[in-house]
Amino acid sequence: xxxRELMVGAAATAASTSLASGSAMSATAKPIPxxxxxxxxxIEQLGRVRVDDYAWMKDDNWQKVLRDPTLIKADVKEHLTAxxxxxxxxxxxxxxxxxxxxxxxxxxxxxxxxxxPDADGAWxxxxxxxxxxxxxxxxxxxxxKADGEVILxxxxxxxxxxxxxxxxxxxxxxxxxxxxxxxDEQGSEVYRLHVKDIATGEAVGEPVESVAEFAFSPDSRWxxxxxxxxxxxxxxxxxxxxxxxxxxxxxxxxxxxxxxxxGAGVTQSRKWIVIGCGNxxxxxxxxxxxxxxxxAPVLVEKRQVGVRYDLDHWNDHFVIRTNxxxxxxxxxxxxxxxxxxxxxxxxxIAFKPGNLILGTTAFRDHFVRLEKVDAxxxxxxTARDGAEHAIDFDEQAYALGLDGGYEYDTATVxxxxxxxxxxxxxFDYDMATRKRTLRKTQEIPSGHDPAKYETRRLNAKAADGAxxxxxxxxxxxxxxxxxxxxLLYGYGSYGISQEPNFSxxxxxxxxxxxxxATACPRGGAEKGWSWFLDGKKFKKKNTFTxxxxxxxxxxxxxxxxxxxxxxxxxxxxxxxxxxxxxxxxDLWAGIIAAVPFVDVINTxxxxxxxxxxxxxxxxxxxxxxxxxxxxxxxxSPYDQIGAKPYPAILATGGLSDPRVTYWEPEKWVAKLxxxxxxxxxxxxxxxxEAGHGGASGRFDFxxxxxxxxxxxxWAVERGWETA
Length: 723
Known about the structure:
By secondary structure, this protein is of the alpha+beta class. Among the domains are: 121-268, 7 Propeller (Methylamine Dehydrogenase, Chain H), CATH 2.130.10; 457-718, 3-Layer(aba) Sandwich (Rossmann fold), CATH 3.40.50.1820. The protein is built from 14 helices and 37 strands. α1 (10-21) packs across α3 and α4 (95-107) packs across α14. The radius of gyration is 26 Å and the shape is globular. The two termini are 40 Å apart.
């Protein structure tokens, strides 16, 4: 699309100019929202026609804009700047509350915190923060010692003078001589890989450009890395000698399907390099022996539509997690090292409906699996002799995480435990003796008394009878008469489960008398993989109706009411927000849609975007399937906007976001604002220096959360009426 002049009405032009320049407004004047020009674009697809008035907001040069935002079209930048200024003006009265909430959240962070060290041979590796720092220091020290620290990477120092700085992953070589890390300085998730000599601190070889992920070979001689192409997709895997240059790159794997994600890693045993390929429906793996890293990869089992598998190496065989043979929630099979194909798969841990096997980790004498049963995780340990036990916990609602560490020949596995009232705890668990050792408890410097709060597990009944889990956090003694404001959070996509985690952020609402509730609608995997399958593709609307059922259940039992309820979701959860705004605008005082995926039909028709072909199994392909087109169009938030009494809405995004591009919330707001019949404000806040995850610094990120929460309070109190 060619660059065009911005043409708006006189009033809108005046508003945009005033707000964008930061000019003072009179004390009595109400901020005037920007008015986006309409430029109808006729789109014909599968014999169907739709008209998009705001297609011009997408910069045709978006690939370059992601890497260099200064290249964005002038009219788009002007409009975004005006929207940001309007939002700032509208929320000016909340700035003291934002500042207070930020300080509260910051006060719950131990500023000079450090991770529990992970042992590997003679060393133990960790990260730590210095007081006041936005970014951590990566370091190591001799195993079991409190001194002798060696700094591997000082992110805080490296980030100075940069608006955005984020390390994607970092790792040391098996011989402990080199350290590598990936850096994104724009928010576009296009990383540059650096390697340094730990002893000298000097750079080793040329940086590797456009990296999605990397792994060092176990012999410490090679880097395997995944190239992110011009459209942001992981497309190829290369090998380079550590200390080499671009001229030394060797193509190891070239993925023929643009809808597949790919990556390379090393098994816990360090005996195999594994190339994994897959999408939501299918996967395959290729093996390279660590003893011969330059060998050609060997296929484990050819990809088959509907069949997923991944593998771990355990002593003299592979353990494969797969949904083959109708094992919807996955089963575990074993297969010999030298004959890993499906013909030799032997069932080991049987498929149990509703018992979702999430992942596995192998150690020499034990095999660990993480499962989810009825929205709660559990850790199951199997010894080499077949003896099996699960780690027990007392609370009714909690979250578990598993940290496999670096070492294979160990009896210790680390896990994390938390609940909505319990700060995170790190335990080392002896798999042989079954003794758990508390290594660290998340410190809350400003203080935290779990006894002042209570958490509940509820179930809402969906229209078809499904029981939808809800996790609730509130102060003890909160009256359940509808008077307490309610924030209802949801996601519901990609099989990603919501966990009843402790949050230093949510307390800033709960301590003000709010009830925090997390809904677990279909589309996640809280109740097994079938829960996900019942909320994807042609069953996607279950996600939206489940969330609405959760709100209605909460209201019916005194947890808030429509005038005191704010809905909150981000990314695919932003799609949920857009859908429920159209379906039941009457249920909410406000809606917060963070980086919202709302322009569904256009995005899933744009094959240049990074996630479009890989996500057709999740949403459908509107370019080839008329049924998918029609169903998608029937719920796409942007396309279903109509004359309705919408609640107050805050949409946020990042200019460099490769996952949900900035123009999705921009277009949504432009169309939504004039359609709303309620007179409630519709606001847009775009971070001009970040991507999908928002600000990179730990404190700057909290400022963005504080703005979201202040908006929630403002929406319930209808702050725009008194400002």
